[in-house]
Specification:
With about 450 residues, the protein is an alpha/beta fold. It folds into 2 domains: about 140 residues, Rossmann fold (3-Layer(aba) Sandwich); about 280 residues, L-fucose Isomerase, Chain A, domain 3 (Alpha-Beta Barrel), CATH 3.20.14. Strand 3, helix 3 and strand 4 form a beta-alpha-beta unit.
């Protein structure tokens, strides 16, 4: 389910135009707006016409703890109105304009588009340029999804189990500036707190049953390894529940396997199908990206490396077996493998299903936070590798995409989801005043 958000709505009018008709149409169009699920719309009950009306509306909204505000231009209106409310509320804005009413032989009936132009110009000249707008019957649902993401990000705590992986300097971030710009806090935990929770025999047995049911090929697994990953799954779940964590990163090497006996990759593959977001190698910003993918409605976001460019300018996107098992193509058996860490790997193994995808990364470098995004298609591929992987055809070509990643200093993990979330992420970036990076073919 998409994340929750709370959004205010108000309508501006001017009595020198056909304001009564516009007010009636606005209230009808609100029914379309309310079809957006998991949103609480706080609708101001009166038309805002004069500056004193705007002061009352602004005071009302300021007490509502809103995530954003929709300002509807029902007709042309005074330029004071939007500015008064913005100064009181200080939330992301959407300028929504009713389409012009049919002509009836007199003057233009609403002139609502000019009202929008006035508001937008005033805001832009104040330096407020992260608003969005439309002239339409309802508000862009992608903007609403972007506001969901903003709400979910503010106040989020990401659990950092261990540090980043050895030598992965490109994953490091400066915590306090990132907290200031995003609202995301990092909380550090030991590896032992992740794998050392007290769990019952029945909890372990339940996870063992899941592993043996889900993964068709467990021929490489010993009884001890099956026990250890089942116990780890129970411990990891309890760790996240006890600490009220929705998102974690795990330093899954080099110490994890030797310290515990198996790596956590297959456990991450299983638990991510239960609503948890778990990113590898201490990559907090890919964890955040995956979480926001989910808040915007994606199912089972996953992390991958850009591992190879083939002769046909497609790419191998691979990772060491932590993607949600639900993404398997269903053609080759899902396996549990021990191909690294001296036989302690215990990773999920499958080829990803085909379909259109979008890929993203929130990434900070030299004090600037950017969002990388690209679209493409997953092509069929045989299971010739261990780990979780896919063959990707990017719209802008694998070579150009890889060059974009390298030359912009973007860290070496990307988040992928099936479907197209690029419009939502562009709006999210605009609201947060972050730049967008896309490959140029």
């Amino acid at each position: 389910m998409k994340g929750f958000t709370k959004i205010g709505v108000v309508c501006f009018l001017r009595k020198t135009f056909d304001w009564e008709s516009a007010w009636a149409e606005y209230n009808q169009k609100l029914e379309l707006l309310k079809k957006n699920k998991n949103v609480e719309f706080v609708i101001y009950p009166e038309a805002v016409i004069e500056p004193e009306d705007a002061h009352k509306a602004g005071d009302y909204f300021a007490e509502q703890n809103l995530d954003a505000l929709i300002l509807c231009s029902g007709t042309f209106h005074l330029g004071h109105l939007a500015l008064i409310i913005e100064q009181k509320v200080k939330r992301p804005l959407y300028l929504w304009t009713l389409p012009e009413a049919p002509y009836n032989g007199g003057k233009i009936r609403y002139n609502s588009m000019v009202g929008l132009h006035l508001d937008g110009a005033n805001l832009a000249k104040m330096g407020i340029k992260n608003f969005s707008y439309s002239i339409s019957d309802t508000v862009d649902p992608h903007w609403i999804d972007a506001i969901r993401m903003c709400r979910a990000m503010k106040g989020l705590t990401i659990g950092m189990v261990g540090a980043r992986a050895q030598g992965f300097y490109d994953l490091a971030i400066d915590e306090l500036p990132f907290l200031q710009s995003s609202g995301v806090m990092l909380e550090h935990y030991t590896l032992e707190s992740f794998y050392g929770q007290e769990v019952s025999d029945s909890e372990i047995a339940e996870f063992k049953k899941e592993f043996t049911t889900i993964f068709e090929d467990i021929s490489e697994m010993s009884e001890d390894q099956m026990y250890l990953i089942s116990k780890l799954a129970a411990s990891a779940k309890k760790f996240m529940d006890t600490n009220n964590l929705k998102v974690v990163t795990v330093r899954n090497w080099p110490e994890f396997g030797p310290a515990y006996g198996v790596s956590p990759c297959a456990v991450m593959s299983l638990l991510q199908t239960k609503g948890y977001i778990m990113a590898p190698e201490g990559d907090t910003q890919i964890a955040l990206t995956m979480y926001l993918n989910k808040i915007a409605g994606a199912e089972d976001p996953f992390c991958a490396d850009f591992s190879q460019i083939f002769d046909d300018n497609t790419a191998l996107l691979w990772h060491g077996g932590d993607a949600p098992y639900t993404l398997s193509d269903g053609k080759s058996p899902k396996s549990l493998d021990t191909f690294f860490a001296g036989g302690r790997g215990v990773t999920a193994g499958f080829v990803h299903k085909t379909g259109d995808f979008s890929s993203f990364r929130i990434d900070t470098s030299l004090g600037e936070t950017r969002i990388f995004m690209e679209k493409g298609t997953v092509l069929p591929m045989e299971k010739l590798l261990k780990g979780t992987f896919l063959k990707a055809k990017f719209e802008n070509g694998a070579d150009k995409v890889f060059d974009t990643l390298i030359m912009n200093g973007l860290a070496h993990h990307i988040s992928l989801v099936y479907g197209d979330q690029t419009k939502t992420f562009k709006l999210f970036a605009k609201i947060n005043k972050w730049s967008v990076i896309i490959a140029d073919r």
